[in-house]
Design goal:
membrane, 5 strands, 371 residues, transport, alpha+beta
């Protein structure tokens, strides 16, 4: 009996140990489950949109939509991109087998992209068709996917790259450096001045050369050829700035009469500018004036400014003291001297007048006696 009781007690203790071992992991998993559920997972479509946007194989451009620069792509390019790179679909998981139309419609419902339409819906004069990449867009009324002439703009912020982060710290320092230009040493001022003048001259030269090439080729051949991108355009990106070769001319050839008219107008403007150009003396005066202004800017320094202010202040004090002393001295002159001088002058004038009157009376008496 005692042996049976001991066996039963041992069995119960073994069951308790098993229950403790089993209960430990279960309780930890039950505690960890709410923590895993509390961490929000990123939407697969958000990841898909970010990966597609970062992929350089999908052609995109920048445009202005409601006074905001947006990056957009075309529906036909997106369709071709998905067909050529099916591995991008793997991010979607169970939705990777959906059609392109369904994928884009889901992106539209999640506000990851928005359908846009061109602002200029009519062909401009001299063009055969509408631009393939319009520079100005507006929101389309129907937010559904269409492959034909459909434009879609990304609605989320792109991940900041390393060089953008570096520039965000550099720009405030650059602005501070510009404000501190007057206190630079002379040699630094020379370097900054010639660098800025060279950059400005380069930009103006590029614009003039671009316009001259366009005008000559347009007048002679009737072709619209723009070498270099338009630097003044708001939608121009850095990748487009380094492009040299022009895009394909999509406009019709202009009439020879209009080309001849504009050629004559350009020739007339050149002749007028040459006729009214300043002479050598005027150019020398302008050059001297500009050089004086530049010299004043380059030679200015805080020490000279402070010393000039001190000299001006001391000079003003000396002038005031001299004026005060001169006024005091003149006020302390004895009045007898002034009175005597004025009285002597007045007596002399009276005596001269009396002598003239007596001479005239004597002459009249002499004439009357002779008569």
């Amino acid at each position: 009996m005692a042996g049976k009781g001991a066996k039963a007690t041992a069995a119960k203790s073994a069951d308790k140990d098993k229950g403790k071992k089993a209960g430990g992991p279960v309780s930890r998993s039950s505690r960890a489950a709410p923590q895993e559920n509390s961490t929000p997972k990123k939407d697969v479509y958000q990841l898909f949109a970010e990966k597609v946007r970062d992929n350089k194989q999908l052609e995109s451009r920048w445009a202005i939509m409601q006074e905001t620069r947006v990056e957009y792509f075309r529906g036909k390019d997106f369709n071709a991109f998905i067909k050529n790179y099916p591995e991008v679909r793997e991010i979607l998981g169970p939705d990777k087998d959906l059609e392109v139309e369904d994928i884009v419609n889901t992106l539209l419902t999640k506000n990851l992209v928005i359908r846009c339409d061109r602002v200029m819906k009519t062909v401009r004069p001299g063009k055969k068709k509408l631009s393939s990449w319009p520079a100005h867009l507006e929101i389309h009324n129907e937010q559904v996917f269409t492959e034909n002439d459909g434009f879609y703009a990304w609605m989320f912020l792109k991940r900041r790259t390393l060089w953008q982060t570096v520039l965000s710290f550099v720009w405030p320092l650059f602005a501070l450096a510009v404000c501190l230009f007057p206190v630079y040493p002379y040699q630094c001022k020379i370097v900054v001045l010639y660098s800025c003048a060279g950059a400005l001259l380069f930009i103006v030269s590029i614009l003039l050369l671009r316009a001259a090439i366009f005008g000559i080729l347009w007048v002679l051949l009737g072709k619209r050829v723009w070498f270099f991108p338009n630097i003044n355009a708001e939608e121009t990106t850095f990748r487009e700035l380094v492009r040299f070769w022009p895009e394909k001319d999509e406009g019709e050839r202009p009439k020879w009469t209009s080309r001849l008219f504009y050629a004559l107008v350009a020739l007339l403007v050149i002749l007028l500018l040459r006729h009214h150009a300043p002479d050598e003396a005027a150019r020398a005066r302008y050059q001297k004036k500009v050089s004086n202004i530049i010299d004043d800017v380059l030679e200015w320094s805080p020490k000279l400014a402070i010393s000039g202010m001190i000299e001006k202040h001391t000079g003003a004090n000396i002038t005031e003291e001299s004026n005060y002393t001169s006024r005091a001295a003149s006020s302390h002159v004895p009045p007898s001297t002034k009175a005597k001088a004025s009285e002597a002058g007045s007596d002399t004038d009276i005596e001269a007048n009396l002598d003239e009157a007596q001479d005239s009376e004597y002459a009249d008496d002499t004439r009357s006696n002779e008569a």
